[in-house]
């Protein structure tokens, strides 16, 4: 059955539906939100209601749910009934995956679609893994930050495996767009949970190098700075003592542009007993050109002051940070 | 700075329900319960809840309830936790919670809690921290939080906490302002905010504000009026709202209005809808914009309810 508007044959004229009495929407006598329907859609839903009420789990019911879903993929009752029908008919769920892929083209953020997809994969099991991860990539290729797709992808990896190529995939996406926060999040997910990598500590050094490269390519990028911080989860001392970390702060500050996150990282290091060499002081001083308001002699205070001005939307935050700094000895 | 076009927005909301030939309203049919919550709460915030027929609304809502105790998105649809909360919230707006069989609803909601403390949306089992919030908010309004295992529920939410201080939909899920709201509000309602690293999360949240004054939901994404709610209410609940520029945010929300026809859109110049109209007005309420009722940041209904 074709649901293209151009050549859709009304259900009332299809022989295979002649025994069914369609049920119209019951809005009650005084509908709170009366709405007008497009004729085709109205008819599809009237027939669906009839089949749903009769609990008819037949091949034609399956076709009807397909039509209803294509017309309105948000209707969760139709999806629910489709699952019941698929179960009753013991339908080919690989075909179902193809159907879902078709809908995903224009409805990639639809909750029901993703939930239904998970239900299908749960039934297909590990055999479906490789194909599913590929299909998922197709969806992500159209919207690389699709929250549902990423969430589903993580579920597939954890339930069925397939970790081997995941870090490479993250890298591919970051090469296309180093600002992709979802890809950075996935990278963290992989290095901490993949059974093929050694875990966070083992991966730390190579990941720091990777992240530093990304930072130098685009210093005003929230994600790698947060990622860097995340690599040292629970081990702030190691963060403070890692030359890769304080060096990248210095490098970025010395370019005198796009330095906000570098300053913020330096501030965090100072708050954790980092002992800066004179180079750091000089680099910070070079960022501030006003004579009327000279910078504080305390480096951390000076940084807060600069940030109040160059990141003024968050002036409230920077003033608070300054107030929390330990008083100079 | 512009002004909030109150009259236009009221007209818009009332007209949305009555608009003919709108395919958009057709496809929203199954989530009418959510639409009712967005529209009616907005009207209440604007002081105009009395413009609707309370009895009509309430009798329609009760027709959406199933034997299980759960409510559906509309008559003839299946129950889901999403619509159950909206139904309860709308009845709360009208101060008619007493017509409910609270036992029945409490049984439905608590039945959706899983072994690990998480909640499913309905019998089909989708798990998401959104549902944790919904369950907790709903039962709290009905004063039946004791029907669920609160400790496990809290533990599950905490397992979704990320290193940036934010929360995702499931463990390992990317921090997202919408999910953060759900987790923080759930923790607030259950008296468990001590699990939140308020300084770290507060900074992540205030970083959502971009040059235009608007807020996005994740790093490097576009601003959207609905984040005026998700981000702002979260900041208020953890007592860090001074970290954003309120004036710029007010300006952004007002710029998202359609001052000719009423309604608010996700960002300036886009098409309006009831969802964004609600979040824009709710955000302005949190920002203490004059003339609006105060809204509770955790329960998302006016404080006087």
Topology of this structure?
The complex is a heterodimer of chains A (329) and B (305).
Chain A: H1 39-54, H2 59-71, H3 76-89, H4 93-104, H5 111-124, H6 129-142, H7 147-160, H8 166-176, H9 181-193, H10 200-217, H11 222-231, H12 236-241, H13 243-254, H14 260-270, H15 278-286, H16 299-310, H17 315-324
Helix pairs in contact in A: 1-2, 2-3, 4-5, 5-7, 6-7, 8-9, 9-11, 10-11, 10-13, 13-14, 14-16, 16-17
Chain B: H1 6-18, H2 23-27, H3 32-45, H4 54-63, H5 81-93, H6 102-110, H7 129-141, H8 150-159, H9 177-189, H10 198-206, H11 226-237, H12 246-255, E1 264-265, E2 272-273, H13 274-286
Antiparallel strand pairs in B: 1-2
Helix pairs in contact in B: 3-5, 3-13, 5-7, 7-9, 9-11, 11-13
Please provide a brief summary of the model.
Chain A is mainly alpha-helical and 329 residues long. Chain A has helices at 39-54, 59-71, 76-89, 93-104, 111-124, 129-142, 147-160, 166-176, 181-193, 200-217, 222-231, 236-241, 243-254, 260-270, 278-286, 299-310, 315-324.
Q: What does this protein look like?
A:
The complex is a heterodimer of chains A (329) and B (305). Chain A is mainly α and 329 residues long. Chain A has 17 helices and no strands. Among the domains of chain A are: 84 residues, no CATH class; 127 residues, Protein prenylyltransferase (Serine Threonine Protein Phosphatase 5, Tetratricopeptide repeat, Alpha Horseshoe). In chain A, helix 1 packs antiparallel against helix 2, helix 2 packs antiparallel against helix 3 and helix 8 runs antiparallel to helix 9. Chain A is elongated. Chain B is globular and about 50 Å long. Helices cover 47% and strands 1% of the residues of chain B. In chain B, helix 3 runs parallel beside helix 5 and helix 5 runs parallel beside helix 7. Chain B has a two-stranded antiparallel ribbon with strand order 1-2.
């Amino acid at each position: 059955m074709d649901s293209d508007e151009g050549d859709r044959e009304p259900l009332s004229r299809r022989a295979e539906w002649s025994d069914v009495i369609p049920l119209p929407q019951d809005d009650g006598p005084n509908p709170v939100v009366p709405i007008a329907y497009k004729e085709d859609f109205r008819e599809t839903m009237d027939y669906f209601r009839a089949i749903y009420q009769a609990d008819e789990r037949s091949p034609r019911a399956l076709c009807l749910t397909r039509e209803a879903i294509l017309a309105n993929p948000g209707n969760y009752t139709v999806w629910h009934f489709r699952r019941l029908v698929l179960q009753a008919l013991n339908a080919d769920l690989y075909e179902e995956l193809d159907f879902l892929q078709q809908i995903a083209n224009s409805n990639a953020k639809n909750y029901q679609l993703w939930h239904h997809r998970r239900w299908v994969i749960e039934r297909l099991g590990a055999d479906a893994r490789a194909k599913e991860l590929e299909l998922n990539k197709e969806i992500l290729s159209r919207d690389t930050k699709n929250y549902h797709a990423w969430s589903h992808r993580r579920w597939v990896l954890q339930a069925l495996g397939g970790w081997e190529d995941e870090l490479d995939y993250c890298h591919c996406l970051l090469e296309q767009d180093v600002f992709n926060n979802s890809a950075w999040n996935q990278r963290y997910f992989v290095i901490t949970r993949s059974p093929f990598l050694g875990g966070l500590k083992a991966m730390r050094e190579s990941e720091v190098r990777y992240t530093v490269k990304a930072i130098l390519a685009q210093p005003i990028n929230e994600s790698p700075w947060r990622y860097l911080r995340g690599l040292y989860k629970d081990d702030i001392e190691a963060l403070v003592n890692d030359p890769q970390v304080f060096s990248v702060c210095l490098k970025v500050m010395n370019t005198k542009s796009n330095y906000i996150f570098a300053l913020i990282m330096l501030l965090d290091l100072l708050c954790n007993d980092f002992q800066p060499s004179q180079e750091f002081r000089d680099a910070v001083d070079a960022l501030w050109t006003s004579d009327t308001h000279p910078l504080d002699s305390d480096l951390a205070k000076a940084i807060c002051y600069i940030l109040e001005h160059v990141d003024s939307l968050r002036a409230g935050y920077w003033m608070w940070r300054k107030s929390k700094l330990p008083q100079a000895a | 700075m512009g002004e909030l076009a109150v009259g236009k927005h009221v007209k818009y909301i009332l007209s949305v329900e009555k608009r003919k030939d709108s395919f958009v309203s057709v496809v929203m049919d199954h989530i009418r319960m959510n639409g009712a919550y967005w529209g009616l709460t907005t009207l209440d915030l604007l002081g105009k809840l009395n413009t609707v027929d309370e009895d009509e609304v309430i009798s329609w809502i009760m027709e959406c309830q199933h034997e299980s105790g759960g409510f559906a998105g509309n008559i003839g649809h299946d129950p889901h936790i999403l619509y159950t909360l909206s139904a309860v919230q709308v009845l709360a707006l009208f101060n008619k919670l007493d017509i409910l069989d609270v036992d029945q609803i409490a049984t439905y909601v608590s039945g959706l809690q899983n072994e690990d403390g998480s909640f499913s949306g309905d019998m089909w089992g989708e798990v998401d921290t959104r549902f944790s919030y919904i369950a907790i908010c709903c039962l709290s309004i009905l004063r039946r939080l004791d029907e669920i295992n609160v400790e496990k529920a809290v533990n599950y939410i905490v397992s979704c906490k990320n290193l940036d201080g934010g929360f995702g939909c499931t463990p390992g899920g990317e921090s997202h302002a919408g999910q953060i709201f759900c987790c923080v509000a759930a923790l607030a309602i259950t008296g468990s905010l001590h699990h939140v690293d308020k300084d770290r999360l507060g900074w992540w949240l205030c970083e959502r504000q971009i040059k235009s004054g608007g807020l996005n939901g994740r790093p490097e994404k576009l601003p959207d009026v609905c984040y005026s709610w998700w981000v702002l209410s979260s900041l208020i609940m953890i007592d860090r709202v001074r970290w954003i520029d309120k004036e710029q945010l007010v300006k952004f929300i007002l710029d998202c209005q359609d001052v000719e026809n009423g309604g608010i859109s996700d960002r300036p110049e886009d098409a309006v809808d009831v969802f964004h109209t609600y979040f824009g007005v709710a955000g302005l309420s949190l920002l203490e914009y004059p003339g609006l009722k105060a809204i509770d940041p955790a329960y998302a209904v006016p404080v006087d309810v």
